[in-house]
Amino acid sequence: MRALRLMSWKTEPVLTEADVPAPGPGEVLLKIGGAGACHSDLHLMHDFTGDTLGWGPPFTLGHENAGWVHAVGDGVTGLDIGTPVAVYGAWGCGDCSRCRLGVEPYCENPGATPAPGGGGGLGMDGGMAEFMLVRHTRHLIPLPGGLDPVAAAPLTDAGLTPYHAIRRSWPKLAPGSTAVVIGVGGLGHVGVQILKATTAARVIAVDTRKEALDIAEKYGADLMVPSGDGAADQIRTATGGHGADVVLDFVGANPTLALAAAVVRSVGDLTVVGIGGGTLALSFFSVPYEASIQTTYWGSRSELAEVLDLGARGLVKPETQTFGLDEAIGVYRTMHEGALRGRAVIVP
């Protein structure tokens, strides 16, 4: 089969031939229907090393995956051949308290996993290939009726990650509240949709690009604010001087973190989702009283099931473009240039 593999750190992936895996006991072989291209993959190619992550190449890229059950190993029950499924991307030890709750990105026994904090496409072979081996049935969620694998693939990260970040702040997103989405790119534009589908908050979208703000408006954002000088004042004015109850930074760079701190309301949430490498100085007077600051990583299995339900009902639908495997390297180059609209899904 063909597979897009990262062979070493700080290089582009290569499209090469690989053996079709054979599922062992408890394992499932998927025929891939769609694999999302994520900005995190660019960090794998250009920024990270084994010293940072604890694992490394070679492995097949693609951590946003969906497809059909193609073959199963001994002991696998309840998954018929041909069943459409989405892959839960974070693969923890399966036994610690966090994993038992279904929050495997926060596995507390990383030494018991082949790729700590990772999974298929992150240290282990992912879905940018014709087939993908999934190591345990708990990582598979059957697709709800009407949702096909191409549409489901980006929901496993670009949907799940903002959903988790938003869901934890639901108590602060009652009628009369305001949420600010900084960075309306691959994850942020889905975050706008999730806010509109699951909360009563007014949504303010912030981005440097007019086309991104146009997408935010398309999906229901109530106010579009160009990033830069004056953005904080405009948001403060729009919130009666109080600031936003929830601020979601999908960039995570120094300027966006500074903006987030400038517009979060007292007792509000400032959640950093993007891994743009910025830092936020924290002192007693640097943020409003009782403002909570947190980072998030992916989400839980049960939350993925909820996101897929939203997708099946048409309430959350990422902007996607589809490409073949032979176009995938070019997709990443376009993404690196900031010229990709929405999410790219590779369809083997």
The tally of beta strands, per DSSP, is: 18
Quick check: average pLDDT?
A: 95
Helix-residue proportion: 25-40%
Assembly level: single chain
Shape, per Cα inertia axes = globular
Sequence stretches where pLDDT stays below 50 over 5 or more residues = none
Given this structure, which CATH class of the largest domain is correct? Answer: Alpha Beta
The largest sheet, given as strand count, sense and whether it forms a barrel, is:
7 strands, mixed
Order of helices and strands: EEEHHEEEHEEEEHHEHEHEHEHEEHEHE
CATH architecture label name of the largest domain: Alpha-Beta Complex
CATH topology tier name of the largest domain? Quinone Oxidoreductase, Chain A, domain 1
Distance between the termini: 10 Å
Q: How many distinct helices?
A: 11
CATH-defined superfamily of the largest domain: Medium-chain alcohol dehydrogenases, catalytic domain
Tell me what you see in this structure.
It is a single chain. This protein has helices at 39-46, 50-53, 97-100, 149-152, 160-167, 188-198, 210-218, 231-238, 254-263, 301-312, 328-336; strands spanning 2-6, 14-17, 28-37, 59-60, 64-72, 84-87, 119-120, 123-124, 131-134, 140-142, 178-182, 202-207, 223-226, 244-249, 264-272, 292-295, 320-323, 343-346. It has 348 residues and is of the alpha/beta class. The protein folds into two domains: 2-156 and 299-346, Quinone Oxidoreductase, Chain A, domain 1 (Alpha-Beta Complex), CATH 3.90.180; 160-295, NAD(P)-binding Rossmann-like Domain (Rossmann fold, 3-Layer(aba) Sandwich). Strands 3, 5, 6, 9, 10, 17 and 18 form a seven-stranded mixed beta sheet that branches. Strands 13-12-11-14-15-16 form a six-stranded parallel beta sheet, with helices on both faces. Strand 12, helix 7 (210-218) and strand 13 (223-226) form a beta-alpha-beta unit.
